[in-house]
Amino acid sequence: MPDAPSDTVLSAPPAPARAGGELFTEERSADVVAASFDNTPDPRLRQVLTSLVHHLHAFVKEVELTEEEWGVAIDFLTRTGQTCSDVRQEFILLSDVLGVSMLVETINHRTGGTSTESTVLGPFHMVESPERELGDNIALDGKGTPCLVSGQVTGPDGEPLAGASVDVWQTNEDGFYDVQQPGLQPPGNLRGLFSTDDEGRFWFRSVVPRYYPIPDDGPVGKLLAATGRHPNRPAHLHFIAAAPGYRPVTTHVFVADSPYLDSDAVFGVKESLVRDVPEVDDPARAAEVGLSNPFRTLTFDLTLLRANQAPAAQPADGAPGGSTS
Ligand code: BEZ
Ligand code: FE
Questions:
Q1: Residue 28 and residue 167 share a domain
Q2: Which of 19, 79, 108, 194 is least crowded, fewest Cβ atoms below 10 Å from its Cβ?
Q3: Is residue 96 in contact with ligand 1, taking CB distance under 6 Å?
Q4: How far is it, in rounded angstroms, from Cα 138 to Cα 165?
Q5: Which atom of ligand 1 is nearest to the CA of 125?
Q6: Ligand 1, closest atom to CA 122?
Q7: 144 lines ligand 1 (CB under 6 A)
Q8: 119 in the Ramachandran plot: left (φ > 0), alpha (ψ -120 to 50) or beta?
Q9: Residue 114 in this model has a pLDDT that exceeds 70
């Protein structure tokens, strides 16, 4: 005869009751699952998870997700994770093409129209950009349409920010960053870390950037293809401007006549960031700035908020539930 179950098994402590204790039903699914997080000690984690569960359940109910579709989604997310490596972040790319990166960026860097608007960082920034002197030519390979880039970094009252750092990076005229073409482009090509002069001004020589596709050989690219979306970003030059006592801004300046300005694959374009890049045909001026004639000019001034300045308020139609108009 088998032994009777031991006392230890019989006296196992009962599982702690879950907050709410209600059983799962289709109608009450979100509330039942959200209640399981009621005892989360961190109130922000509790708020985020509760809201996430409510939105996820509402989504599944709205589309009546099939088991096959659920499986496709799990497979897609699995492949997205498997595509990530030390040098590639496919989940951020997914966030980018869904507009989530831009939304998070925009919510966290509201300007109230008083400072330079931000946009996505993207995957091609170098943590340690090569330091350059004002006036340097960052087109190390000497290829492309020459362009003089200049601007001024100021605070909210127009005060010039001397010694502000201005970190820039861009594609070559074929639409590739240096890190995408090792061996073809010299390391540090079309990048530079500048420091502004006494009037907060910066200037350097470069070439006109070109539009380019985001990395589209992975699951995110397949998603774009399946939905008839192109992978391109309009031509732009990346900037991170920073000064002690002020809030740094991560942004781009977009070339006004570039294709894809109105259909950026990652929704990064803001009207305030678009600039004409006019041609200058003036041999004397070209010689003065050290470029071949004719050349193009790109002017981009940046305004930073003070570090202690309160963030701008949420726009009226940004409230949960959206616009009421
Ligand atoms: C970029 O501008 O470098 C970029 C931004 C988002 C995704 C891919 C590239
Ligand atoms: Fe870029």
A1: no
A2: 108
A3: yes
A4: 16
A5: 3
A6: 5
A7: no
A8: beta
A9: yes
CA of 192 to the centre of ligand 2 (A): 14
Residue 176: CB within 6 Å of ligand 1? Answer: no
Same domain, 284 and 214: yes
pLDDT at residue 113 tops 90:
no
pTM summary value = 0.89
Shared-domain flag, residues 123 and 244: yes
Q: How far apart are the first and last CA of the chain?
A: 76
CA 262 to chain centre: 17
Hey, what amino acid is at 33?
Answer: V
Domain that holds residue 176: 100-303
Residue 240, in any domain of the structure: yes
Identify any residues that bridge with 131 across adjacent strands, giving them in sequence order: 193
In the structure encoding, which two tokens stand for residue 177, read together?
């960053």
Nearest CA owner, ligand 1 atom 5: 122
pLDDT tens digits, 206-260: 999 999 999 999 999 999 999 999 999 999 999 999 999 999 999 999 999 999 9
